[in-house]
């Protein structure tokens, strides 16, 4: 298992132009379909919105949540790891105002975060978070609020056509009386995917090669650890102005101050993060400058970064033929002013990571990362920080840390 410490002095100070095709194929500024090409970056920002069927991408193209390329569908444990891929539309960072309240974990926050459109300040009183084992399901039973909130997302949507979609929220079922202020996580789907099936259009049907709705293991694992996970049902989360993820964030912050809402005064609005897969990983990178975020993570997908101001986790699959680890690592190397961690699950492909259970690398990594940075769970720092970190000695992975991950 390889473990490399990256010193800031030898890293590039500016973001590299990630995603450049090695063969020049599939370059487009329009929404179109290409075959066998690669996602292409133009001037450091990904161009077009093209589906990339059967090709590879070094930086995240986009893909349906669990899966490998169309024309070469594979399965892992009976579940698909296949689906379509696509480039991100445009680039640039999305930031929508807002100040950040002081406070860590479940302690008292006053002031909260002010969202776009003038959403009110939020206060929450709760206990400090105890530590918990991220390799096991958390202590909370999970509830889901489905098809709630505002319509959002660029049209036409790859799955839903001309119909904009709403939001699913995955949360502890005892939110009202848990005694904690629950951090917010914003999830960004891969291209043509959803957090879970949403019939009749978004379904998992291996016979028809449909793989829409594959992220429920991640949603439930994070919610079981106390996070409120806001998941847009848009299947193109890297498109739109504002992005559907930002619309969802604005809405949940408004709900946190609405006495009629189940989220009223139960959310830790000072501790908000985002993560996403494939096209959703690219979307996460596109909104990295969002001032309300305190931590970020990408899974098998990146885009050129600007305005990063938080710790950032980069995950890839060593057997991923859709999004190559080299491109994810290239983007990781550009983060030098804030803690950054790169983890390559050697035997994972573009989608099999989601089916490994709580002890799997991806689910435990996400829970540990956001527990550390949004709940102040210092006991879980051992998974990432220091030369002998837990993942540094885990034979399932190869990792790299930037210098800010050292004690």
Description:
The protein is α/β, with parallel strands linked by helices and 407 residues long. It has helices at 216-224, 244-255, 279-286, 325-332, 361-375; strands at residues 3-6, 33-35, 41-42, 45-46, 51-53, 68-69, 75-76, 79-80, 82-83, 142-152, 165-172, 182-188, 204-205, 210-211, 228-232, 267-277, 293-299, 312-317, 340-345, 397-402. It has a single domain, classed as Rossmann fold, CATH 3.40.50. Helix content is 13%, strand content 23%. The strands form 6 sheets. Strands 1-20-19-18-17-16-12-15-11-10 form a 10-stranded mixed sheet, with helices on both faces. Strands 2-5 form a two-stranded parallel ribbon. A two-stranded antiparallel ribbon has the order 3-4. The protein is globular.
- CATH topology value: Rossmann fold
Low-confidence stretches: 1-120
Distance between the termini: 21 Å
Strand content: 15-25%
Number of domains: 1
The coarse overall form would be globular
The overall strand count is: 20
CATH superfamily: Alpha/Beta hydrolase fold, catalytic domain
Helix content: 10-25%
Give a short overview.
Helix content is 13%, strand content 23%. The chain has helices spanning 216-224, 244-255, 279-286, 325-332, 361-375; strands spanning 3-6, 33-35, 41-42, 45-46, 51-53, 68-69, 75-76, 79-80, 82-83, 142-152, 165-172, 182-188, 204-205, 210-211, 228-232, 267-277, 293-299, 312-317, 340-345, 397-402.
């Amino acid at each position: 298992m390889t473990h490399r410490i990256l010193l800031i002095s030898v890293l590039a100070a500016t973001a590299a132009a990630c995603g450049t095709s090695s063969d020049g194929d599939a370059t487009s500024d329009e929404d179109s379909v290409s075959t066998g090409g690669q996602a292409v970056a133009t001037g450091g920002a990904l161009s077009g919105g093209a589906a990339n069927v059967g090709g590879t991408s070094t930086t995240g193209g986009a893909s349906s949540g669990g899966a490998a390329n169309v024309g070469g569908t594979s399965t892992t444990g009976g579940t698909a790891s296949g689906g379509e891929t696509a480039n991100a539309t445009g680039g640039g960072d999305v930031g929508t105002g807002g100040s950040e309240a002081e406070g860590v974990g479940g302690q008292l926050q006053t002031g909260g975060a002010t969202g776009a459109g003038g959403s009110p300040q939020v206060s929450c009183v709760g206990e400090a978070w105890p530590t918990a084992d991220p390799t096991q399901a958390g202590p909370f039973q999970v509830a889901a609020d489905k098809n709630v909130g505002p319509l959002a997302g660029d049209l036409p949507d790859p799955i839903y056509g001309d119909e904009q979609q709403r939001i699913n929220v995955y949360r502890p079922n005892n939110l009202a009386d848990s005694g904690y202020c629950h951090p917010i996580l914003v999830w960004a789907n891969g291209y043509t995917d959803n957090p879970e099936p949403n019939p009749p259009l978004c379904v998992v049907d291996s016979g028809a090669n449909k793989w829409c709705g594959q992220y429920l293991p991640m949603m439930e694992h994070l919610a079981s650890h106390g996070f409120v996970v806001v998941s847009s049902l848009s299947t193109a989360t890297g498109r739109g102005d504002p992005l559907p993820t930002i619309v969802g964030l604005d809405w949940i912050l408004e709900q946190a101050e609405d006495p009629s809402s189940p989220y009223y005064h139960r959310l830790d609005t000072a501790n908000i993060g985002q993560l996403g897969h494939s096209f959703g990983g690219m979307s996460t990178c596109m909104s990295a400058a969002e001032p309300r975020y305190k931590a970020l993570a990408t899974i098998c997908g990146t885009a050129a970064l600007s305005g990063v101001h938080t710790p950032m986790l980069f995950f890839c699959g060593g057997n991923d033929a859709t999004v190559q680890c080299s491109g994810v690592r290239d983007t990781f190397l550009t983060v030098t002013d804030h803690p950054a961690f790169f983890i390559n699950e050697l035997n994972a492909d573009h989608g099999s990571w989601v089916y490994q259970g709580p002890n799997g690398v991806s689910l435990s990594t996400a829970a540990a990362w956001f527990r550390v940075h949004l709940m102040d769970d210092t006991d879980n720092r051992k998974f990432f920080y220091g030369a002998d970190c837990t993942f540094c000695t885990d034979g399932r992975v190869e990792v790299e840390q930037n210098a800010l991950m050292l004690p």
